[in-house]
Amino acid sequence: MPLSEPAPRALSHTRRLELKAYEREDGLWDIEGHITDHKEEDYDMLDSFRTADQPMHDMWLRLTTDTDLVVHAAEAVMDAGAHGPCHLIAPNYDCLVGLKIGPGWNRAVRERLGGVKGCTHLNEMLAQMATTAMQSVFEAAGQVVEKPDGSRYLSPGLHNSCYAYALNSPYIRDCFPDYYEAD
């Protein structure tokens, strides 16, 4: 469903975020994020000048995880940062190695890469990369498994993780009745 008709307006800025997950032959997973920002007109960055056809940001991030969503490797690359020194922060993303994507992920990212230790745009993208990782590794990690008796196993990590997975939701009642908790 499209949004309602907007008021008359002029496009000023476009941000594109692309997230992909790859299952590797070695059993690990690569979760890749790419973010670009473009202005519709030439833009003075104070330490550089960008024409409308040049990105203000063009940044990449790859997390390599196992099926338990533990980060084995992290790599950041900035083809274009907002300012000259932005690319110097890329090696700091190695500090994600050993973290587990799941509850507390965003807090852990802020602790390790918040403020001057990281890049605001890459850090924001990490939250979406975590969701992409969970959605991609979901089946391989056995989050939902059909048991021989026809019942389904639902990982405790999904319990009450969102509206649909609330243990009192219609979805849980209909698809995972063994886990359903009526109000």
Write the SSE topology.
Elements: E1 13-23, E2 29-39, E3 43-44, E4 49-50, E5 57-65, E6 71-80, H1 105-113, H2 120-137, E7 144-146, E8 152-154, H3 170-175
Antiparallel strand pairs: 1-2, 2-5, 3-4, 5-6, 7-8
Helix pairs in contact: 1-2
Question: Care to describe what's here?
Answer:
The protein is of the alpha+beta class and 183 residues long. The protein starts with 12 loop residues before the first strand and ends in an 8-residue tail after the last helix. Helices cover 18% and strands 28% of the residues. Helix 1 (105-113) runs antiparallel to helix 2. The protein folds into two domains: 13-137; 144-179, no CATH class. A four-stranded antiparallel beta sheet has the order 1-2-5-6, with helices on one face. Strands 3-4 form a two-stranded antiparallel ribbon. Strands 7-8 form a two-stranded antiparallel sheet. It is globular.
